[in-house]
Fold:
Amino acid sequence: MEKHIYCEYCGTENTPEASVCVHCGRQPVPEEHLFLDYLKSHTKDELKSKAEETVFETLKGWLMSHLYGMLVTVTVVSSAVASAVSGAGNVRRVSYAETPVSMNEIPSEDENGVIRASGAFSGDVLMSSRGPLYWKYDSGSYSSTGSMGDFSRTPDHENLYVCRNNGQEEILFSASGYGKSALLGGRIYFCELEEDGKYYLSCIELNGAYSRSFGEGLIQGTDDRGRYLYYSFSDGSGINVIDTEIDRTMTAAPAGRWLAYHGNTVYYSTVSGSTVTLMGMDRDGTNIRKLADADAGGNSGMIAAMHFRNQDVYFSCGTASAGGGMYEGGRVYRLDANGTLHTEAGQNELVEADFTILEDGTVQCRSQAEAEDVFQFEAMKNFTVRNGDIYLKDSVSGAMTMVMSSAEYARAGNTASISEVTAAGDDLWVRIDYMHEDSSASVGWRQGYARTGSVLLKKNMKDGRIETVSTY
Structure:
């Protein structure tokens, strides 16, 4: 039987080989996807009332055989504890194979009780119509020791996902979740760390109407319109795309490393020897294209930072050691609108990862030898730490602004490591691990540390007031 595909936008039938609709030029959809979307948008009673019980049972069997094997483990917190950080109450494990339990409606500006994003769509702390959303960790969430100040997350450990409103934390749900979450279309997407050491991507609607697991996945970012969510596999490889409007997932690039989303383009990189290839795709995961080959100057190459000016793309590219935790220097390249690659810095002496694009389009940066004040490094981070002071990087130009001095968070007798920095409105949210040297945790030349505590701080950038939101 010949397979048909239909355009979800104009309804035109296309041939199975069509990559774009012959009528409107957008991506068509296989007919089984239309059936699935139809099933998900109608209740059983609605289908029965239209004398379509046979269709319902057939499609239900197909859905169960394809999707019900993927379980999302989420603990939905009962109404008895939905408005407090602690308290007794019944909880229930909810999986995708059953109807989620109904929760208290979470108040918001949305007339349907749905929380909407009021800032960035993904991050460690999300701003929503109800208030900031974030993971609330406890003392068991992270290991007590680690090398190079890297403390591992505890698999299958229940953490609380909370909403902060008027200084009070409301528990929305709990799960073995860590790191970035995303808020798209009234659904919260989050990553759970399971016993096998892998992350699994799930989402939930807080009114209990929907939950789903997408399998192995680690959130990387979203587009600027809040429609597409991009995630990798647990090891950071691959680019997968979720179209949250029609609930469809595709693996756009099985290999490569996420870099950034800008100007309707998803940027990622692949590496072969000393050559790092900058790749691009459209926001929906189509039109994958090679943009440029850059010389990293050796193996273990990476793109460490990326910024933009008009139609030009600037990026630093070099080598790293210690599993990517130490940047050894490189060059700054500029890819112009015609696809020509230019070397802007590092021709004679290797430069550090961070750079700033000046008004005239030239690049300002330091040599790698001058970057000894950088205590910690992670590629594509939105911040840097110099001599203990935290600098936030402008996502477009790369210009750095000092947002918190070491004196504002330092603890006597402790070394501090900054893990996340989020700017949201007038507030700055910072996660910090405090530690002291512990030789028993050393691995080879990598210095070991014992964690003495971690905090989530909130700084009001208008009055400078700093608040400890949580400790763990």
